[in-house]
Amino acid sequence: MLSADDWGAVWLTLKLASTVTVLLLLLGTPVAWWLARTHSRARSVIGAIVALPLVLPPSVLGFYLLVAMGPNGPLGQLTQWLGLGLLPFTFPGLVIGSLLYSMPFVIQPLQNAFEAIGPRPLEVAATLRASPLDTFFSVVLPLARPGFITAATLGFAHTVGEFGVVMMIGGNIPQQTRVVSVQIYGHVEAIAYAQAHWLSGGMLVISFIALLLLYRFNPSRRAL
């Protein structure tokens, strides 16, 4: 069965995934909207940056984040100047690393949803003298709801399953940075396969339920 350390890792993982999903939806929505609507030459560059974690090894991303957030890195010097200390091997450091690593799994579904709306609903709203902000909240968001469901589900599930980035940035500190994937790795190293089976099975069930709900209740996914 699961020990207190195992439950602590489960709770920390769910806390991390929830925090990252909410932040990515808040921060990624304007980015996805801009990518879907802009004709700027910078669109391809920003799109490539957003998609970079899909092809970049997690250890590479984790290494450069560790350097950037270290005492001599630009982000580390900024956080020290602000009196926040250093971010590596802390929960906020895990959040930043997970934000970057899970970024394409949230922004790309949102961008696809915004592009699928097309210009017609926006033109109709403009003829009714709706402001851009009112158009976005009253027209765009309801039409893009399936994209938000997909983005939230994939972002949450991907963050739950992270290993390389969180290991590089957070290490293995109980109750602070030891997430489920790191806990499973520790059990395997200790040849404690029974505990590894319990945690791995739990992650498998959570991932399957998340995708099942996505395909069951997301109309756009059902149509595929």
Features:
about 220 residues, mainly alpha, 12 helices, about 80% helix, membrane, transmembrane, MetI-like, transport
Structure commentary:
Keywords: Cell inner membrane, Cell membrane, Membrane, Molybdenum, Transmembrane, Transmembrane helix, Transport. Pfam families: BPD_transp_1. The protein has 224 residues and is mainly alpha-helical. The protein is 79% helix and 0% strand. It is built from twelve helices and no strands. It has helices at 4-37, 42-55, 58-69, 74-81, 91-117, 120-127, 132-143, 145-160, 164-170, 180-189, 193-217, 219-222. The longest helix has 34 residues, at 4-37. The radius of gyration is 20 Å and the shape is globular.
